[in-house]
Write a structure and sequence with these properties.
The protein is mainly β. It is 4% helix and 45% strand. The protein is built from one helix and eight strands, in the order αββββββββ. The strands form two sheets. It has a four-stranded antiparallel beta sheet, with no helix packed on it. Strands 2-7-4-5 form a four-stranded antiparallel beta sheet, with no helix packed on it. The two termini are 32 Å apart. The model has no long low-confidence stretch (mean pLDDT 82).
Length: 158
């Protein structure tokens, strides 16, 4: 489940801050595990990739990223079995699914693993990276879309 080589060939401008294999013991009882890392000045994009294997719906690992001041995003994938892969990233004007774009602050950032339904020792592969040069893909606007698509009450995704 090595991440670096394949991705590095696609994004030569990436700098890998940390590559780590985390072994979560079957006796682990704390619901959270944090990995701290430092982002230097003038960074335009920060990201974290993670993989682990899920068998018979176990384990569930919810991954979040925090900048020095606040929460920047999270992901959980609902895959019953197989290799679960995450790629969370943020830039000034764009982000991956589940993340919040905004200023990329230098300083200590944190990746948080929320671990539930652990059945045995688990290996989680983590890779944290940054870029100092990026091509902006889109601009976000501060205006809300006020169209009403469905006036009926209910649960909606948005």
């Amino acid at each position: 489940m090595r991440l670096t080589e394949e991705i590095k060939n696609q994004n030569p401008q990436e700098t890998i801050l940390l590559t780590k294999k985390i072994v979560i013991p079957s006796t682990f009882t704390d619901p959270y595990m944090d990995v701290l890392f430092t982002v230097p000045k003038n960074v335009k994009k920060v990201g974290v990739r993670s993989t682990h294997e899920r068998k018979e719906s176990f384990p569930w690992i919810y991954i979040s990223i925090f900048d020095p001041l606040s929460f920047r995003g999270s992901q959980l994938k609902y895959l019953r079995e197989g290799v679960v892969t995450y790629d969370l990233w943020v830039t000034q004007t764009d982000s991956s699914f589940g993340c919040i774009p905004g200023d990329i602050l230098d300083g200590e950032w944190r990746v948080q693993l929320d671990i539930t339904q652990l059945r045995g020792p688990e290996d989680v592969f983590l890779e944290i990276y940054y870029q100092t040069e990026i091509q902006e893909s889109r601009q976000l606007t501060p205006f809300f879309d006020e169209r009403v698509i469905n006036k009926k009450p209910g649960w909606f995704k948005g």
